[in-house]
């Protein structure tokens, strides 16, 4: 007789040797290793205050014939704590997804069950293949004031727990970050940078459900971000950039009317256009060039010779 | 099928739609402010779920994206006419219950009522543009039948339900008008009301 | 005696003049004929009669009574008993409830029953014990005096919780303190219980009770939530605070709120959260109206009398529950309701000047759902004249040393002498006041001549008026007018 036996961390476990009498002569092994007789009470195996390391295969053999009388796989673990559940719509108005995880491991298999109720209607949450702990729901109705109630129940052999989220349709709308963010200098404009991006591809109908954007940028040498909110369009020209300073730029998106801001997009870097160093037309200028051409070093087109700090490696 | 759109009609519709979107957006912002003030003033729990209230048009709609333009306008118009009557009743109850105490809420309620009336007129304009008949104003002149006499708490909850639905309707109207303003793929001109997806 | 003898003779009276006697005997002789004879000790002849029951009704003796019971069964068992008054128990008849009426708004039960006094020959003190049964019993004692007539007694009991919350059962019993009767006295049996069903017995009776009450600040309140049998109740809140619930029945839970404080303008919500919905009530907690202070009345035009007063502490009630004022004039019997806004600071009420009536005996009545009060004022209106502000002050005549002024006063002052005061100021002389007494007229203009002025001098004038006889208060100053005297003739 062999099966899996689940026990809580810290529990005291007693294993009988199948149908053998208490006073029968037996031998117990753990993962193939004999267990010291001091752990036995007659033919019963006593494990006190078990911990995770005591998970394993336990076998009991009849004393003389070494006949296997009992075998079990002991799995020491914990009942599930309250799971963490998050629901979000990044493709409004198509639907929303819910994802979950357990804040602490249980060390034994858990099963999750999710129920989504809208008013009195039970909605189907279609499990996503990847990632495992996620499913998505299609909006059957739009513009509803009836709240959605999502209940996630987690069960394992040692116990059960659940958590519930109640939310309005519009409260969980959070687009994915804008994509293809690009920034480039504007020729002959030492204080401008042209930034462009695209709606997140997951956003299905930007025309009926337009997004607005939030741009933040700062020179690398400063910590303070500058912000600008843009109610439409997917580009913006920064006009107050510090000349010659490298900038880090990010964009976030939000539905024009509801929900919350997306995470920040991937950061892009750019440095505003800078003046080309001018060739000297006077006598002195020619002499200097002649002496310069003989040196081995050539400055990158956008860097001023006199600006010591501006020499940048590739 | 609506007559093929003359450019001027299309431009006029587009203009009406964009003005309507701004009006609905402003109305929604004011309704949300009013809702916050109402919840606080009435001592209600903002997260309380309120059962559907009889006579209050529900903004919730299934297969919204499949509606025709005419459906959108007619449903919007019916809703805002109902809200006009409901808000007028709320204003009356407000005066009855509070007299001149907290006149601020009364003024905010009256302001939203004005916007709802203006938006209803705007929708009628859009329907007229499409030579669509305007649903009988007369039958709805006295609005929905007076609801049964509610207890004060039920009145408070109904008010909450009315303002919540109105906020959602304003949002839906913005989306509906954007649909109407969308240039149809073929002609690049905003579609007649019937053809819009 | 032998087994078959009559024994344990007991007599009980319900009305002090008849008593019911019962006895035991052998079970075999239950329906056999019995001769029952009795004689009192004042030598009246013995009275006998036959009975098959072991109970007879005979008069209550003044002193004692000798009873002989002969049962004519197989063996002639005869037994004699001597009954003294002290052996007779006096147990009043079980009272009968005539009506039990609920008044839900005030959570009051009104109980009516007959005291059955006519069965007694003389007045007696009666004690009534009334039991009100809900989740727990409440017992109350009520005293009355029997007067040899059947009097319908009426008694009100105000429940500490709304009657809708759960069913109320009432029953009553009586004890009569017949001091002259020496026998043991006891309580009657309880009457059958009468019931006022609670909403928790009605299908669809859900809700929070009391519904939308108005109560005084400091009250202790009980609210209950009646719900369906299978509905789980999550909590009950009063305002923003959750309260511990007491279960009254399977469909009714209650909370107790002590020392309620004044509610805000829209009332305090009492919310019962159920698994699938909300029930609620709105309670308005306020103050009864204070006695109006500084009640004062005057007229500015002999058409309308304006009364003003200080309302005292705000009631905290608004809209249809606001404090309302009415002005009643006793002499004429005329009553006027006053339009007073609960948020404005000044409280004013207009009452028409009545023809040929000088003296007004006003009662300012004040009431709101919590209470009422009043103030009174007797006033001779001719002694309370404060004319309206003089209007259209103009200069009508002018020479080097005098100027004539004219002004208009809105009001009917015929028969009233006016005292008007003209303020004269100029750049190089002190402000002077010049009084002039003028016979009043109806909606009229008035003139006054300012003499002894300096030539070629700019003067500013303004005027105010009051009643010449019985001065009360000046009107406000009129708007000013400016005029320069002409130059002196050469």
From TrEMBL, chain B:
<dbReference type="InterPro" id="IPR009079">
    <property type="entry name" value="4_helix_cytokine-like_core"/>
</dbReference>
<dbReference type="GO" id="GO:0043524">
    <property type="term" value="P:negative regulation of neuron apoptotic process"/>
</dbReference>
<dbReference type="GO" id="GO:0005615">
    <property type="term" value="C:extracellular space"/>
</dbReference>
<dbReference type="GO" id="GO:0005737">
    <property type="term" value="C:cytoplasm"/>
</dbReference>
<comment type="similarity">
    <text>Belongs to the CNTF family.</text>
</comment>
<dbReference type="GO" id="GO:0008083">
    <property type="term" value="F:growth factor activity"/>
</dbReference>
<dbReference type="GO" id="GO:0005127">
    <property type="term" value="F:ciliary neurotrophic factor receptor binding"/>
</dbReference>
<keyword id="KW-0339">Growth factor</keyword>
<dbReference type="GO" id="GO:0030424">
    <property type="term" value="C:axon"/>
</dbReference>
<dbReference type="Pfam" id="PF01110">
    <property type="entry name" value="CNTF"/>
</dbReference>
<keyword id="KW-0524">Neurogenesis</keyword>
<dbReference type="InterPro" id="IPR000151">
    <property type="entry name" value="Ciliary_neurotrophic_fac_CNTF"/>
</dbReference>
<keyword id="KW-0217">Developmental protein</keyword>
<dbReference type="GO" id="GO:0048143">
    <property type="term" value="P:astrocyte activation"/>
</dbReference>
<dbReference type="GO" id="GO:0070120">
    <property type="term" value="P:ciliary neurotrophic factor-mediated signaling pathway"/>
</dbReference>
<dbReference type="GO" id="GO:0005125">
    <property type="term" value="F:cytokine activity"/>
</dbReference>
<dbReference type="GO" id="GO:0048680">
    <property type="term" value="P:positive regulation of axon regeneration"/>
</dbReference>
<comment type="function">
    <text>CNTF is a survival factor for various neuronal cell types. Seems to prevent the degeneration of motor axons after axotomy.</text>
</comment>
<protein>
    <recommendedName>
        <fullName>Ciliary neurotrophic factor</fullName>
    </recommendedName>
</protein>
<keyword id="KW-0221">Differentiation</keyword>
<keyword id="KW-0963">Cytoplasm</keyword>
